[in-house]
Amino acid sequence: MGWPGRDRSKHSWHYNTVQSVNQYALCLLVFLLSSCCFAFAQDELTAVPNRPTVSTPAQPVQPGVLETEWGLDASGSEQDINGLLKFGVNKNFELRLTNDPFLADSGTHGVGDTGAGFKYRFTQDSGRQPSIAFMYMAKLPTAGDVLGTGELDHTFMLLVSKDLGKHHFDFNIVVNLLGKPQGGFDRDVLNALAWSHPLSGKWGATAELSGVTSPNASTPASAQFLAAATYTARPRLVLDCGMTARITGDIPHFTFIAGFTYSIAGLYRSRPQPVEGDARRP
Q: Across the chain, which distance is largest between two alpha carbons, in Å?
């Protein structure tokens, strides 16, 4: 978010920020190209992308599979590189670790917060029954109190996913408990509904509406719309690119987003179970 009255004419900070973003982007590009080459030498895995939407699908990654997601978000006042590491313990249980190795916000840049948690699926998409899962994440304040709040947060999520023909839907209800310096928690509720559909060949499209309530008197509620394209380079490697647009609230008017999801390896001796009979984004 922009800071009112902040002097944005400090060219040295702007140069350092752009240089840092370029360095991280180059590292991501090298990793992505290496991943593409590595993918040809491995048995095929099937990625289960959680990005580029705010909402998260109910489906975990394949059992025994280690999967990663990386993305770049950029607006006029905020930029970040965000990462997610997922591991499928079994067909219904997934461990998750998130981190923003680079975060810049109106004159300040550094490392963002870290998150750790899990996803557990209760039901699998079949007939009229959707996939339903619960997810918990704890935010560890590694960003400090300048780029972050410096406090521990808790997030509880109900995830519902369903395929209707070739149309895929993800609906999330998220309750955030946001730690306060003086003790206790602020609370907000986020709702997100995402739609995705395959297009021609390896291309797909996704769109989403999401909004979050106000946690306190100084932070207004906000809502946004997202539209993005996806490209399945290989079953284990999915690229995405799109934009978010502000509907209301103190958030950037437009944000560019781009990234990828990559299944690194199957760590169990048996072959990973194929992704079938469950809701999955195209």
A: 59
Mean pLDDT by 10 residues, the chain (282 residues): 34 40 50 48 80 96 96 92 97 96 83 94 94 97 80 96 96 96 93 96 97 95 98 96 97 97 89 57 66
Structurally, the chain folds into a number of domains equal to 1
First to last CA, the chain: 32
Structural domain of 74 = 11-195
Q: pTM here? A: 0.82
In a domain, 118, yes or no: yes
User: How far is C-alpha 86 from the chain's CA centre?
Assistant: 11
212-281-258 Cα angle (round to 5): 65
CA distance 273 to 269: 12
Strand duo 93-105 + 114-123: pairing: antiparallel
